Amino acid sequence: MVKYFNVPEEVARDWALVLCMSPGITGRRGTQKTRSEGGSDVYPAKVMEIALTNGFDEFFTNMQLGPETGNAEEFTSFKQVWEAVKLQLRYAIELSLRSKDVGRIMESRYLCCPFISSIDDGCVEKGMDGNELAEVANPWHNIIGGSVVVVDSLAAIKKLVFDEKKYTMTELMDALRNNWEGKEEMRLDFWNAPKFGNDDPYADNIAVKYYDLIADEWKRNTTYSGTFPLPLAQSVAGYIVNGPKTGATANGRHAGEALDDGGISPYMGCDKNGPTAVIKSVSKINASKHKGILLNQRLSSVLMNSDAGFDLWHAYMKTWHELGIDHVQFNVISTEDMKAAQIEPEKYTDTLVRIAGYSAKFIDLARYSQDTIIARTEQDIAAG
Q: By the 8 A CB rule, do 58 and 177 touch?
């Protein structure tokens, strides 16, 4: 808020979260009163999918969703893949921002908020509704579900198609369109390609470039509030909702499976080198270009309940702070307990889990959602 939106430091220090993860000022003046200030969603995994199919969504909507950026079978370099992703992202970002701006104007005319406006000094002084007034800009918009799917897919394509030339783009597109059917060996090659969250420079360098691209594309735009918005990398429930709408992806994921569960969380089960490797990967991203970047971690309940648990966690958090990472949230629950709760939910009525920006009772989640929590890597801090 201080760096980008010119909020005085003494005001910014008295902040509160707007919705799940977006810091905003508090008090009687300049607070965010409408979600139209921010909160649109860009869906990177679908962007990646249609970047390989000339902007056409073959899997879910069967319609042209983005600009024509070429068919992947004709790509002869990784640069062409990257350029297609960039142009599809640009289109999606600009569309989402314009739609929110239109919504903001319509809200100010037809969805006024007189009570909230009456307790804001700026609204009272200027005689303006809270939905109309943007006295202190705080625009932010979400990257919802799939950023790490994009990073891992790009890493796999670069390595297996263009560096090692083990497969062609035609072979890859045939496998994706057929959901890897009859191509399990090939799918495992893509699944075992370098993955973000393992302190592997091959994947991490692509992640750095990708998150910088996201921020730079957001910055190209000016919103209703008179300035450019910041991206907010989180997923809320988007990784669950949008997974079934997304075809097979080049990270080895099958069509319909969930996406990555945070804004920068490694894909479920792919962070194999321990929790320190995860935060080292995450620390390479320039979080200052973003409104927030959400990292989920699941910690061993046995370890955390041991005598050494708190000291190990505290050491982990000191490292997190020293590395300048934006945000981390935890689940401390065993796979055994969650599976038991699926069988006998009446015994686990008070079991809470952290999803991605919010918490919920485990037994209230759909089975698909429960399975995504179970699939997250259970990190052993003592080993990492």
A: yes
Which pair of tokens denotes residue 368? Answer: 């698909």
In tens, the pLDDT along 164-175 reads 999 999 999 999
- Structure token pair of residue 114: 């007189």
Residue 373 makes CB contacts below 8 A (sequence gap 6+) with: 298, 331, 338, 353, 355, 362, 365
Is the pTM above the cut of 0.85? Answer: yes
Sign of CA dihedral 272, 384, 333, 23: negative
CA distance 202 to 221: 31
Single out the residue of 167, 169, 202 nearest to residue 186, CA to CA.
Answer: 167
| Coil, helix or strand at residue 228 | coil
Q: Which CATH class, in words, describes the domain spanning 2-15+23-289?
A: alpha beta
- Let me know the angle formed at the C-alpha of 144 by 361 and 181, rounded to the nearest 5 degrees: 90
Domain ranges within the chain, ordered by starting residue: 2-15+23-289
Distance CA 41, CA 127 (A): 31
Position 208 scores a pLDDT of 98
Backbone angles phi, psi at 380, to 5 degrees: -105, 100
Statement: residue 137 has pLDDT above 80: yes
- Give per-residue pLDDT as tens, 166-220: 999 999 999 999 999 999 999 999 999 999 999 999 999 999 999 999 999 999 9
Q: Has residue 227 got a pLDDT over 70?
A: yes
